Amino acid sequence: MRYTSAAIEALIEEFAKLPGIGRKTAQRLAMHILHEQPGEVEKLSRALTDVKERVVSCSICQNVTDLGDDPCSICRGASRDRSVICVVESPTDMLAFEKTAQYRGLYHVLHGVISPLDGVGPDDIRIKELLARLSPAGGSRVNEIIMALNPTVEGETTVLYISKLLKPLGVAVTKIARGVPVGAELEFIDEATLSRALEGRSAL
């Protein structure tokens, strides 16, 4: 059923485009917005606009950061172990590891995985940026790269591809342990399981 208000219907259609949001949830969100105070709606609108205008990729790790705050706070952190880089698929995966409070190294965010069926190749994710961090010109002193990608076919393909590129560089490449269920997404794994997966990582 469509609403008699074209504006409400348009808002429902936009909400329904978001991942995990069906039409019923989109309707509830639209009705919530309709009954909110104008000031609250303005804050939501401003937050959405700011995300597009102010958020950029960190020039080092490719994680999200604010314009004018590059490199990001993790890359700048004086207490971080700069000899280890944990490679993750997305910023949400990085946050999952940060929640464990166990990992104190650096990160590299790929923003995707190799997926030929979806038309995503090695050049479509941030692999070149990772290699640049390990080059002599980059002044890197990295001893270990931890591959912490989701245990899917695409994730495993990406791990193997990057491992082959890193092998000639003489950097140890490890992979998080299999405490993480096959097909699971790291952002939804509890902190204890992620901590054990890090501790039990194996060489590739």
Looking at how many chains there are and whether they match, the oligomeric state comes to single chain
Strand order, largest beta sheet: 4-3-5-6-7
Count of helical stretches: 8
| Count of extended strands | 7
Question: What attributes does this structure have?
Answer:
204 residues; 8 helices; alpha/beta; five-stranded mixed beta sheet; Dna Topoisomerase Vi A Subunit, Chain: A, domain 2; Helicase, Ruva Protein, domain 3
Structural overview:
The protein has 204 residues and is an alpha/beta fold. It folds into two domains: 6-55, RecR Domain 1 (Helicase, Ruva Protein, domain 3); 72-203, Dna Topoisomerase Vi A Subunit, Chain: A, domain 2 (3-Layer(aba) Sandwich). Helices cover 42% and strands 14% of the residues. The chain has eight helices and seven strands; from the N terminus they run H-H-H-E-E-H-E-H-E-H-E-H-E-H-E. The protein has helices spanning 6-15, 23-35, 38-54, 73-76, 91-100, 127-134, 153-166, 191-199; strands at residues 55-57, 64-66, 81-88, 105-109, 144-147, 172-175, 202-203. Helix 5 (91-100) packs across helix 8. The chain is elongated. The protein starts with 5 loop residues before the first helix and ends with a strand.
